[in-house]
User: Fold this.
Amino acid sequence: MKEIVDIGIGSLALGFLLMVIPIAGFIYFKVKIVKETVIALIRMVMQLSLVAFYLEYIFAWNNAWVNVIWVCVMILVGTFTTIKRAGLTYRFFILPFAISGFISILILDAFFLGFVIHLDYVFDARYFIPISGMVLGNALNHNIVGISNYFGRLTKEQDLYYFLLVNGDSRKNSLAPFIRSAIKSGLNPLIATMSVIGLISLPGMMTGQILGGSSPMVAIKYQILIMLAIFVGCSLNLMLSILLANRFAFDSFGRIKANLFKK
Amino acid sequence: MGNMIKCEKINLSFPGQLICKDLSFEVFAGESICFSGPSGKGKSSLLKVLMGFITPQSGNIQIDGLELNSDTIAAIRNKMIWLPQNSNLPVDSANELSDLLQMNAEQVERFQQFQDQLGVRECGFDKSFAEISGGQKQRIVLAACLSLDKPIILLDEPVSALDDHSIDLLFATLNSLPDKTIVSTSHNKKWIDYCNRTIEL
Assistant:
């Protein structure tokens, strides 16, 4: 198997030259996202450099507790990011979103790493951390879309919710149209991605594995599994997030709490 | 005839606005009452109090023998239907409405009958609400609510978008349901005259 060609720091820096194109476009069209783009780039470089640094240690150490704590940190960061991006208030949503993330990862890792791949050591950092990260990273994006849709519509169309609450036969049914819409909006992009994967997109994990020296067949099998894990993880996380958040977002009379969104 | 709704010493106010002070009233089964008064006086808010959407500062509310609180609210709502003001719901057809209300076959059949009685049969189930008038939409929503066959009917400004002929059809429809208890809000004279009693706010 061929050794992967390492990228020198100079070559890596050279890659940044390409950023001139989008930034020139932003300036030309007066799109005010240059500052945000530069900040995001700096954050990406710093975060990934840090990740590389501590993953070296975490992989070398390969201790179950450290790995579990690391995944829990990822779940918490995902929770805070979802709440912030959806514009919600922290106090109602930290617990339900964190629990949803934790349950989703627990089920997925146990199933895929334990039953499907048959790892002897499920908490092996080389599998446990990247696969949890892939699932959580994707779940984050889709959760933000689904959760924003759910609470946004529920607040904007609360007349419909209250109408169904009185005229319908249960609170569950009065929330059903909002839950359906949230799940659709959250998962539709993922269904679209899944249906064209390999045709117009080569997923990052597969590309990484091939670059890392794996055979395309092995890389594809992993990719299929990871897509399944991502889809199940995103669906599970979104549905659980909504169901658990419902316990905090309504009062005992079924009324939508007034301060769900950050002012 | 027993009372269906009993309110005792209801005090309700919003910042800078007093809605009612020590308001007590009873509504008997089969009776129709109307909260009347100028716009912005809180007529709709009183209906929302009965549905548990607004909690008054003080007072007791009993509906069909149940004290209104968080434990009984689901059972109380199951005894009610509510036609909101303007029926400005984000719903596009009678079909969608029956889906949202998860109507069974019997309720769908009654829905059609009430559409007939209220003079909106020609709108059918599939016609988009964007193609019909506000009054027609309001009558379709009312037909859907009535088909659920619950004992208490809450109507918020039921005739605000209706012409005289449609109001007569509404009276005829409600007259065919003598055992229902109706609580409404309106400042329409024809409607006020139709109701058994009026509570002025």
Remarks:
- Chain A is about 75% helix and 0% strand.
- The mean pLDDT of chain A is 91.
- Chain A touches chain B at residues 157, 159-160, 162-171, 173, 177, 251-255 (CB under 8 Å).
